[in-house]
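Assess this today:

___
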Amino acid sequence: MNWMPALLLFPLLLATPRAQASTLEATQLLDLTGSAYGYLALMIFLLGYICVVLEERLELRKSKPVIVAAGLIWILVALAYHQSDEPYTAGVELRRYILDYAELFLFLLAAMTFVNMLEERRVFVALRTWLVARSFTLRQIYWITGTLTFLLSPIADNLSTALLMGAVVLAVGQHHLHFISVGCINVVVAANAGGAFSPFGDITTLMVWQQGNVRFVEFVQLFLPSLVNWLIPALIMSSVIERARPGGEQRHQRMKKGGVTIMMLFLATIILSILVHSLLHLPPVLGMMTGLGVLKIYGYFLSLHDPIYREQGHITHHHAENSSRHSMLRGDHTGVVRRFDIFKVVERESWDTLMFFYGVVLCVGGLATLGYLTHLSELLYGSMGTNLANSLVGLLSALVDNIPIMFAVLNMDPGMSLEQWLLATLAVGTGGSLLSIGSAAGVALMGQAKGTYTFLSHLKWSWAILLGYSASIFCHLWLNGT
């Protein structure tokens, strides 16, 4: 008998209703920003974030310093509250932030698994080779990749879409280095703009949706401002694109069996998440995890019909140890293992990003528990006004990752209207396009097109992107009569 499930449930059985309820009780937070603990926590956060900014130079994954910083900050938070005769406040607040992270983690895990499954089934490769095989001019490819990026990023997320379309730009650009540079900028701007009008387009929009500040259908109000955000710089940059025909790769690659079915399952999962959230008032993560379960079941049936490998009696693919044991029990020593395994797909998730998100949520949560976000909220939204404050917050996301910025705004909770929450979502989601290091899409494409798409090549067109950013904000304010 396998005792592991019972052991995992044992801590839950020990938890009394009183202990479980304590995590939901409201706590009175203190202003500890002027204490030694507060100053030290802020310094630790800044040092951790400096390591994040210098990730490429240090060759240190960004999740590592922020996870350590999160642990140290919460130890300081606990010590500060203990000294103020509030020994339980830090624990209650920490559990609240861990619960927030758990919902987002599971949601992102499910969404990333679907995207990785589509990649494993060669859906994106088939789309890319179809585009490359067509006799389009460079300017046509420029507009096609930009348009597809803008339309796909609300569904497949901005980072995955940017990597896909960046591969298309590189494949057709070949020796046209100027086209590759401008084409990558176009893809980054389109990915961030497209991701701003959907909860599935970016982590920041997902956070706003799960917090309940904006309903799913209300994100559509950002479609026109997001389109303006991308279209203005795209039109300006298109003037330097040649009309030449590239000599791209002509080999056609088909998607694997099950690609279309997985796309339909992904769409059904998104719809289910929306319905359970809007109609039943349940967290949308329930819909995503249910869809993930269905995907895993489908993956099992898919593996039954996928080709298998034999190589001199040795297992060459997934789950070698388990497969070998089962083969021996059957008296089969050929080392046969199926080529497809959905758990190997799950292993390909961006774990560094997911762990980085953990560190960010807990770091910002710790600073909020010390009182820093209350002061920042008063500084921004109390003295500047919401329109200017949200616009500046968006510009700040070009220098600092947009995830901690949006999480900070959500924790400030400045009591904004729907229009202002939409403005904050638009600004934070698209402000990172101003610099190549301002968004995950830009950083990823710099790695994909090393030496061609660079920080300086992007900076050359930042003025055009700023025009689109400003125009999108004015468009949103005009649409809402503010």
